[in-house]
Design a protein that fits this description.
The complex is a heterodimer of chains A (222) and B (380).
Chain A: H1 2-33, H2 39-47, H3 54-65, H4 70-77, H5 87-113, H6 116-123, H7 128-139, H8 141-157, H9 160-166, H10 176-185, H11 189-221
Chain B: E1 7-15, E2 18-26, E3 31-35, H1 42-50, E4 57-62, E5 65-68, E6 81-84, H2 96-108, H3 128-135, H4 150-163, E7 168-172, H5 180-196, E8 201-205, H6 208-214, E9 217-222, E10 225-231, H7 232-236, E11 250-261, E12 266-271, E13 274-279, E14 288-294, E15 298-301, E16 312-324, E17 328-335, E18 343-349, H8 350-355, E19 363-368, E20 372-376
Parallel strand pairs in B: 3-8, 3-9, 6-7, 7-8
Antiparallel strand pairs in B: 1-2, 1-4, 4-5, 9-10, 11-12, 11-14, 12-13, 14-20, 15-19, 16-17, 16-19, 17-18
Classes of the chains: A mainly alpha (222), B alpha+beta (380).
Chain lengths: 222, 380
């Protein structure tokens, strides 16, 4: 029961972080380098989960992915099941919900590089992809570390979105934060204490490790 | 002059606050300096040549290959250039060695990115060991860029550009961001480079002393326009140009060591149209040197001064003169009794000019108070 929730949580957070690194990097790159006038509008959409109550995001996702929504309709087309109240639905919700925590640090890191290192690489015969992978990525590694850790930790800690779109199906959508809520509801304060204390310790260790790693990378990179 | 000009450039367009409209040609060897005051558009021109900036109305060709015209625009990474920026801009995440090899590896295809192929390193290309030796980088190879001095960083940046086997080296005020000490540290390397390098160099600078030490050819730029272009010696000897109005105006002349007088520590230099005695170290006869003579160090006499402490009095002919600020005259001279030698600038007062009744075509003696040996002249 308990172990299942922990495993599910780690699985969700890992998968979400990986997806966000793959999806978020091009978005961050575009936000950092584009001169399009409407890019700040895109940046705002990405940042919305920062201020939006998680339940609002969860509500819209439920509408979107539920059997009556466009997502459910699409799923039916290939004979699938709607994504609401499934692990996949949780992943989609978590990706959207944690996106600003991954995209923003990476975007800042890309912006901090400036034009010069990329220009230098171009004069040394490096094409656009070459420049991106051999200059931009290594120089932005601090931003990637921050983004990955924040994205992971934030996904572990989410509650509202999960509850709205996932509910509390053991082994499917019942992650730690929801489990704590359930234990309190059912009066199992002992287990709730154990989980809450564990989360507290986990969060502390994550943030501390990140800060120390950042410091070390910063020293090596400057 | 029937010299071929393999480098041809023309760029026109709005750049920030002013219109850029330049066209110039340069020889396929030696250093061509783009010289002018700060903000005149020199750096923009260099960026256009590199393809880092695109002006739609532009043309650039090197050795018959067009890099830009109204149909073609080669992106920067497809131009065989080496670019040295004002700040060294080394990759902070790579060691000195990896920085040096960044462009090199892309030519040999060893990076996994470069294509190798026809543009790969030719056997007569620039070799790693040669660059390390020439620029004195041996002890720095495994260091991180953050542990280098400003001068060392710029040397690595120059080496990195050279190792990408450029057909054209672009240098944007590579010394401007350095302090006096680092500048003196790096100038000798640049001079050695000048002698060893077979590819043409476009060198942007607003420092005339730097240009005189390094350049063979000059393109004068003011407010986005080319005001004059030609061999350094020719432009320096033109009293109507803006460089002749600078306080430090002077001439840079090629010379050959003739003999050394150990008793007085003087070197005799032969130059077209005369000889000069210069204090200096023992030199091998036949060695090529470049001398710089400031216009303010040259005075004129109608007859050979017989009882003067000035060692150097050379027969010359007045070519032209230009009044400067009402008090002074900038006089262009040609050395030799027949006026067939190299050209020299002299700054004299208008009063003396009128008093001696001087004028173009007249035979005079140029008394040279000070001569500076600039450097080993290239074999161009």
């Amino acid at each position: 029961m308990l172990v299942q929730s922990i495993g599910l949580t780690l699985q969700l957070a890992t998968l979400t972080t990986l997806i966000l690194l793959v999806v978020g990097t091009p978005i961050a790159w575009w936000l950092a380098r584009s001169t399009a006038w409407w890019k700040e509008a895109v940046a705002t959409v990405v940042a919305l989960p920062l201020v939006l109550p998680p339940t609002v995001l969860g509500f819209y996702l439920l509408l979107l992915l539920g059997p009556q929504g466009p997502g459910g309709w699409l799923a039916e087309l290939w004979g699938g099941h709607s994504l609401a109240f499934t692990f996949q639905g949780l992943v989609i919700g978590s990706v959207l919900y944690s996106m600003p925590f991954v995209v923003q640090p990476i975007r800042n890191a890309f912006e901090a590089i400036g034009d010069r290192p990329l220009e230098v690489a171009a004069t040394l015969r490096a094409g656009p992809f070459d420049r991106f992978f051999t200059v931009a990525l290594p120089l932005a590694r601090r931003g990637f570390l921050t983004g990955a850790v924040l994205g992971f930790a934030h996904t572990v800690g989410e509650f509202g979105v999960v509850l709205m779109i996932g509910g509390s199906i053991p082994g499917q959508t019942r992650v730690l934060s929801v489990a704590i809520y359930d234990y309190v509801e059912t009066g199992d304060w002992g287990t709730a204490h154990l989980l809450a204390g564990g989360m507290l310790a986990f969060s502390f260790v994550v943030i501390l490790t990140m800060m120390m790693l950042e410091k070390r990378i910063g020293r090596a990179g400057s | 002059m029937t010299e071929t000009r393999p480098l041809s450039a023309r760029f026109r367009g709005q750049v920030g606050a002013f219109d850029l409209d330049v066209a110039f040609k340069a020889p396929g060897q030696g250093v061509t300096a783009l010289f002018g005051p700060s903000g005149c558009g020199k750096t923009t021109i260099l960026r256009c040549v590199a393809g880092l900036r695109r002006l739609t109305d532009g043309y650039f060709a090197l050795n018959g290959k067009v890099w830009q015209d109204n149909r073609v625009f080669r992106p920067t990474h497809r131009r065989p250039i080496g670019y040295v920026f004002q700040e060294a801009s080394l990759f902070p995440h790579l060691s000195v060695r990896a920085n040096l090899l960044y462009g090199h590896r892309r030519l040999t295809g060893r990076s996994g990115w470069g294509r190798g192929g026809p543009e790969a390193v030719r056997p007569d290309g620039v070799r790693f060991d040669d660059v390390v030796g020439l620029l004195g980088l041996d002890a720095l190879l495994e260091r991180a860029p953050s542990h280098l001095s400003g001068g060392e960083r710029q040397r690595v940046a120059i080496g990195r550009a050279l190792l990408s086997q450029p057909a054209l080296l672009l240098m944007d005020e590579p010394l401007a961001a350095l302090d006096r000490f680092s500048k003196d540290d790096i100038l000798p390397y640049l001079e050695r480079l000048h002698g060893a390098l077979s590819v043409p160099v476009l060198y942007v600078s607003h420092d005339i002393a730097e240009v005189e030490r390094l350049a063979d050819h000059l393109v004068l730029i003011e407010r986005g326009r080319v005001t004059a272009a030609g061999p350094l010696e020719d432009l320096q000897a033109n009293p109507t140009l803006s460089i002749a109005r600078m306080p430090e105006a002077g001439s840079t002349l090629p010379a050959i060591v003739d003999s050394f007088d150990a008793a007085y520590g003087l070197v005799t230099l032969a130059l077209a149209g005369g000889r000069l005695l210069v204090p200096g170290d023992p030199e091998t006869p036949g060695a090529r040197r470049r001398v710089r003579i400031a216009a303010s160090d040259v005075s004129l006499a109608r007859s050979l001064p017989v009882d003067s402490t000035i060692l150097n009095a050379l027969p010359a002919r007045i070519l032209a003169a230009e009044p400067q600020g009402g008090i002074q005259m900038m006089v262009a001279l040609a050395l030799g009794t027949d006026g067939g030698g190299c050209h020299l600038l002299a700054r004299v007062t208008r009063k003396s000019w009128d008093y001696l009744g001087l004028g173009p075509g007249q035979a005079v003696f140029a008394q040279v108070k000070g001569v500076a040996l600039v450097r080993e002249s290239s074999s161009l």
